[in-house]
Recover the amino acids of this structure.
């Protein structure tokens, strides 16, 4: 049996199978609803309101009774007033009849601000795919060579290519017509001097490739000219798999709990890649079939799902991946709609939770070419990867940081999208706040009605650091409730909170606050990063780092002083703390444009030593020490003046 479901304010509607949840209905009808936990019923971000009554315009009778009964999980996220106002969790409420669903502002998904660019880098143009123009000897009664053999020998004689080259079967089927179209004059596109991918009549000038960084939350893509090395179009999108869960473990769990889970997630990301290829080539005046090479980087779980490899063992001890080496796969085998003969190259996996995206960061930043300086590189995403060392030795580890720092587990946390508070400052004397919202040029209080919807990652780091500097929270993270300020109060649950934005300033009609629970969530995330870095320092036998490199979108936008004040990474000269943008995307481009970078990636992935921090015997005690701001005992000489002012 099917029922009519209508979503407002989007106006999307359709008939949905009885028993589906409202969240599942939203996916089917293309309605974006926040679901940080991927429908695991633990985040409360998918709150929706059910409108009751007969709606003549739509011809439906919408009632709360048309949904499954209220569940215990929902009572934890709603007040009695919310329940009386017909609020439900979209991931819990099952459809039993016609309903009209209103999606509140704070529950609506919005286009995320994705960092697509990195830094200027010098590289060699030496792609795997190259074009060669040849004028073949026409076939005669005396020369019985086949068309392919004739072409291969011409390439060998004129360009010194190997005699044992092969040809893609799809191209072979069309070869006889193509070579004769322009009187045996053709342009052959050859992959790695081993396989002929494409043969075009006459002289062809274009050769293009696509580099893609598939993050857990976002996907950034780069359309490149393989002859010049120029990036023609840069584009991005939310990872379509977000609807199955916003972190790695949620998606692995989805694959395990649903018979077709892996297939659904695989098809979702492939569809996303195809969408990017279509619209990017359109912008460049090309078509997807002009793309002859694709490079992909991702974390290990995203790697397995994109390639259709069973991911569940990556999520359980000993976290062994299905494959660690780089792979070359025909695009058509994956369903990627570019040239039918195109190759897809994936960089190698380092370890269970350190994937090709970290390898991409390494080949972009090249710490292994540093002679003396000890570099700490942190790629802060949904999962954090940390690298430490120089040419003598390079170590890496991973830690769970993303959920809190990207807005999940934070009461008013959200992605970096319009309406998100991205920067915050607190007056240490008055405890009053000023903040900036994405999409607005000026700060509050210059703008009184900011339309704020929540706080994104960079704002979360800022507000915790500012609250600590203003004495609102103590080094332990506890609120100082002795301070007399209307912004410091007890919330509805009688727990301490700080008001960042009053309801009248926002677009959600609620005070946006930072709660005691939010502070704890950030402490857990920053402690994981700090402990990971310190373990690497210990294994490398160093007591300080010479520089800190922050990679990724999150690292590019956070205030480095705020990050050090709360102790996200060990002490370092702030002048030596730099953000390099999307280094993983840069690495994907480098691998697309230079085959030697692929070889380099394979070597570095095997050379870099992975450290599993969670099995260290003193992990829990170190983790506990790192919970304090900035740390319970480790010194921070480069920000000691700030810490001294806090103590006063």
């Amino acid at each position: 049996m099917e029922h009519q479901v209508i979503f407002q304010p989007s106006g999307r509607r359709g008939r949905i199978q009885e028993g589906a949840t409202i969240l599942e209905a939203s996916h089917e009808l293309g309605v974006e609803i926040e679901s940080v936990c991927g429908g695991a019923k633990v985040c409360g971000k998918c709150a929706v309101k059910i409108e009751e009554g007969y709606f003549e315009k739509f011809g439906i009778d919408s009632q709360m009774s048309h949904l499954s009964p209220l569940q215990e999980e929902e009572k934890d996220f709603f007040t009695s007033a919310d329940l009386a106002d017909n609020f439900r969790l979209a991931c819990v409420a099952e459809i039993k009849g016609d309903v009209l669903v209103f999606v509140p502002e704070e529950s609506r998904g919005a286009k995320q601000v994705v960092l697509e660019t990195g830094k200027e880098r010098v590289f060699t143009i030496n792609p795997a795919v190259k074009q060669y123009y040849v004028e073949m000897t026409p076939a005669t009664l005396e020369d019985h060579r086949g068309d392919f053999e004739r072409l291969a020998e011409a390439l060998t004689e004129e360009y010194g290519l190997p005699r044992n080259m092969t040809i893609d079967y799809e191209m072979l089927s069309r070869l006889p017509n193509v070579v004769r179209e322009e009187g045996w004059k053709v342009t052959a596109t050859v992959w790695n001097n081993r396989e002929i991918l494409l043969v075009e009549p006459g002289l062809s000038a274009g050769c293009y490739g696509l580099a893609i960084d598939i993050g857990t939350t976002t996907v950034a893509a780069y359309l490149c000219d393989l002859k010049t090395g120029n990036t023609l179009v840069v584009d991005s999108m939310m990872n379509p798999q977000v609807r199955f869960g916003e972190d790695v473990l949620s998606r692995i769990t989805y694959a395990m709990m649903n018979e077709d889970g892996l297939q659904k997630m695989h098809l979702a990301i492939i569809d996303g890649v195809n969408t990017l290829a279509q619209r990017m080539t359109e912008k460049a005046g090309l078509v997807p079939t002009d793309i002859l090479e694709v490079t992909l980087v991702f974390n290990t779980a995203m790697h397995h799902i994109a390639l259709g490899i069973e991911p569940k063992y990556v999520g359980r001890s000993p976290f062994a991946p299905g494959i660690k080496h780089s792979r070359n796969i025909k695009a058509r085998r994956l369903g990627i709609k570019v040239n039918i003969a195109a190759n897809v190259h994936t960089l190698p996996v380092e370890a269970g939770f350190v994937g090709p995206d970290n390898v991409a960061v390494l080949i972009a930043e090249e710490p292994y070419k540093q002679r003396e300086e000890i570099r700490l590189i942190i790629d802060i995403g949904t999962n954090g990867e940390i690298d430490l060392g120089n040419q003598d030795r390079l170590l890496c580890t991973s830690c769970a940081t993303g959920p809190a720092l990207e807005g999940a587990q934070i009461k008013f946390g959200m992605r970096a999208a319009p309406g998100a508070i991205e920067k915050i400052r607190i007056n240490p004397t008055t405890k009053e706040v000023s903040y900036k919202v994405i999409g607005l040029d000026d700060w509050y209080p210059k703008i009184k009605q900011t339309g704020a919807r929540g706080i994104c990652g960079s704002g979360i780091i800022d507000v915790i650091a500012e609250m600590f500097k203003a004495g609102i929270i103590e080094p332990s993270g506890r609120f100082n409730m002795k301070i007399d300020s209307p912004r410091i109060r007890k919330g509805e649950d009688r727990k301490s909170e700080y008001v960042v934005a009053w309801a009248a300033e926002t677009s959600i009609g609620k005070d946006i606050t930072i709660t005691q629970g939010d502070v704890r969530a950030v402490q857990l995330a920053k402690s994981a990063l700090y402990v990971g870095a310190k373990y690497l320092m210990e294994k490398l036998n160093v007591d300080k780092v010479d520089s800190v490199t922050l990679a990724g979108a999150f690292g590019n936008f956070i205030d480095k002083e705020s990050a050090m004040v709360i102790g996200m990474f060990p002490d370092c000269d702030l002048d030596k703390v730099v953000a390099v943008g999307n280094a993983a995307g840069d690495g994907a481009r480098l691998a697309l444009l230079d085959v030697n970078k692929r070889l380099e990636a394979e070597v570095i992935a095997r050379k870099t030593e992975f450290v599993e921090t969670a099995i260290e015997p003193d992990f829990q005690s170190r983790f506990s020490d790192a919970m304090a701001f900035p740390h319970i005992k480790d010194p921070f000489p480069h920000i000691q003046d700030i810490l001294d002012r806090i103590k006063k």
User: Anything to note?
Assistant: The two ends are 68 Å apart (CA to CA).
